[in-house]
Amino acid sequence: MGPYLAVIGDSFRAAFSSRVLWVAIAAIYLFLFSIAPFGYREVMTTSFRAFDLSNGTRMKAMLAQDIDESKRTPPGMIARALPEELQANLRKVAEGQEVRIRLDLLADGLTELLERDDWYDADVWKKTVRLRELRELEEIPASDQSEDERRRISRLRIEAALPGVFQSRSARSLSLTYAGFDFPAVFQIDPSQFKLLLNHFVLRIIIDWILGFVMIFLGILVTASIIPDMLQPGSLHLLLSKPIKRSWLFLAKFLGGCAFVMVCVTQLIVGLWLICGWRLDVWNARLLWCIPVCVFLFAVFYSVSAVAGLRWRSPILSIGLANAFGALCLIVGIAGGVSDGFITEPDRIESMAVSGDTVIAATRGAKLKRFDVTTNRWVDLFPDNRGGGDMILPPVTLADGRIITARVRSGRMNLFGSGSTSSLLLDRSVAWTPIPSIELPTSTTHLFTTPQGELLALNSSELMLASGGLLRPIDEPSASDGKNTSEAAKPTPNALFSKLMKMMGGASDGFRSIIPNSVSLSTPRSVAVAPSGDTVFVYSGGTLSRLDRQAPDTPTTQWKVAATKSLGLETKASWFRMIGDDLVLLRSDSPPMFFDASLEPLTNIELIKFDFGDFKISDVVTCTGTSEVAIVTTDGLAFTLGLGDQASATMTPLSGLSEVDALSWDAAPRQLFCSHHIDQVAAVDLASHRVASTIKPSIAGWRLVDRYAVTPLRTVTPQTGELGDTIAAIVSGESALELPMMAEAPPVRRYHVWRPVVTCAVFIAVMLTIGCVYFARTDF
User: Rounded to whole angstroms, what are the CA distances from 79 to 75, 145, 169?
Assistant: First the structure.
């Protein structure tokens, strides 16, 4: 072993004598010293950002409705205190004009209000919801309040005046600094968002570009001469005079070049780790695992350089071939990315509904499809609008077997879409052709059905109910009925008021709100409908509420609050679902919480056979008629959570399934439908938790090109670009990323962690085998 270690050390010393190496080391330390002054300070969340406004349309309507001087309401007083340009645009909205107001201008206008309080009147604000944090801050004497506390109080008052408008944010934010100085631009970010950006984006970009591009190029430049120099007559004869094998000599030289790169990579990664820990308080030991990954990435390209140097004995040719190989990997990677983004991902199923033997699916590309058994293919139910940013509401099955959904134009990035949205009815009698039906409330995100055939619509601020009799195709529009068209076109005051109400997400024709005034909907929120249909359970911003239907002769349409339970939990994605006759609250990275129908916690439930801390949940489906719920995680695994009679809850994996995207429960055959591997569907029998039947559709068109051209090419070519996914997974400790978007159900991007590792490892093994065989059988 000693001679081989000596060869490795000799290769390392040869590379270490290169001036390029010292230039690279100097550049590494210059980079580390330039980012070392970055830091942060914790501040109260005060200033508004455009991304804080989840429902800008609703906010615009609320401000416009009360901007008149005669209305002393919280929204009206805020509207009249905004900059004059915003006031002018809001008055145009109140007059019925179509005016687009940028979210960043609204956010800036609200931020300006934090500097003064002339818009606030305690008597006017009495009817608004006052959070505990606001009450505690207001108890501090004004003389003792800091500037941040005064601004925080103003922000909380604005949020209370405009419910259902803002994204949920933590009370504390991080403000970036550099060398102790605040950034010139106000940049406040939640701690959870800060870690997400750091682990999934910032560190990955640094490692991808500095190590994956610059460092590898410099490494090839420095190490390309190691193999050709070894083949010089005097050097080769001296090495072969020792008791070593030729193949092992070649491998030792190869490892020597990799050891040189490891020294450079180690300095950069350790430097980043120390800066993140000391300056940003993020001690992430997983970052150190990037050292072997980066050396592994270099080995892919160096294997080409080493074999080329062995064959042609020219460092220049070795560098050229390694760069050409890098260009080939880049081209194949781009082709694979284009194929994923424009061919396969738009066909990935996001949600499903089942009616008898018919499966209706909504895809990530805003397509609505039906599986045709006769052709074994998915059939598009309306023309493709790829790239339009539309959103398909998750379809649901009505009590009579029909399916209802909606297509929200431009709803992917804006919950309000680009106008009114009609629901779409799909019925077997018309070959499942989508037919427009009742208009949905603006910004509807989820639909629910009741055993009575009613439809519940959950939007940004309301939960509204429509009777089953209204769920029918819309009649053909009539002519002007003899009225003067110019007179009919004039907006009446009632029409303007109705328009503003719809912009705010209020009830549309046929829907009525069932949310009592004492209950407000804020993110995160979730709804569960009891099997009787006369009780609805709501989770909103850390509070549980039980709403019971009132008698038909009750004057108000709102349901009564039968019970409430404040949990005081952190604001993160949550799913509140029925599990048998009880309820379960599931939250990402947290154990489940169980409640009975009166919202009393079931503290005696023992969770067995599973550790919830290992997974992030992406969706939960109630298995009606059973004591189970089905869960799909961001990494594509599916489980059922069952609540037994012996005060125990058991997690059971659905065997044989991976890359699961969506779930749907069909109560008639008591089967759980799981979409996986883009557009395949498996029906799982919950009695055995095994797949009972499958849908494996035939493919055509560009999908054939992807399967038989792009995929084989990506298989035989090492996926060096996808090693960035491996790095992101290692640094973050997660195998998937929920892409930040305005939609309430952000798409999940799963990292390819092992695929690039396998392809690169196989390629390195093949190249080194070729090099060993050639070196052993060639007379130099």
Answer: 6, 26, 23
In angstroms, the CA 598 to CA 667 distance is: 25
Give me 581's structure tokens. Answer: 């006759």
Distance between CA atoms of residues 568 and 542, nearest Å: 5
Task: For residue 372, give Cα distances in angstroms to 198, 431, 671.
Answer: 45, 11, 20
Buried b (16+ CB within 10 A) or exposed e, 726-748: bbbbbbbebbbbbeeebbbbebb
The rounded distance, in Å, linking the Cα atoms of 437 and 426 is: 10
| Band of residue 83 on the pLDDT scale cut at 50, 70, 90 | very high
Asked whether residue 306 carries a pLDDT value surpassing 90, the answer given is: yes
Residue 524: asked if its preceding bond is cis (omega within 30°), the reply is yes
| Edge-first strand listing for the sheet containing 628-633 | 606-608, 648-653, 638-643, 628-633, 617-623
Pairing of strands 648-653, 606-608: parallel
Residue 459: the pLDDT is 83
457, 510, 534, 555 from 551: Cα distances, Å: 21, 19, 10, 9
- Phi, psi dihedral angles at 175 (to 5 degrees): -115, 120
Measure Cα distances from 486 to 102, 491, 643 in Å: 32, 10, 63
For 312-355, the pLDDT digits (tens) are 989 999 999 999 999 999 899 999 999 998 899 999 999 999 99
Q: What is the CA radius of gyration of the chain?
A: 31
DSSP state of 733: S
614-666 pLDDT, tens digit each? 678 888 999 988 899 999 998 899 999 988 776 788 888 888 888 999 999 99
With cut-offs at 50, 70 and 90, classify the pLDDT of residue 477: very low
Burial label for 356, CB within 10 Å (0-12, 13-18, 19+), is exposed
Q: Which two tokens stand for residue 398?
A: 């009505």
φ and ψ of 394, to 5 deg: -55, 120
Q: What are the tens digits of pLDDT across the range 414-430?
A: 665 556 788 999 999 88
- Residues 267 and 25: beta-carbon distance below 8 Å: yes
Average pLDDT, the chain: 84
In order of 51, 115, 186, 695, the CA distances from 86 in angstroms are 18, 17, 21, 54
Q: Which two structure tokens, joined as six digits, stand for 217?
A: 């190029």
CB 152 within 8 A of CB 44: yes
Tokens of 683: 């029906």
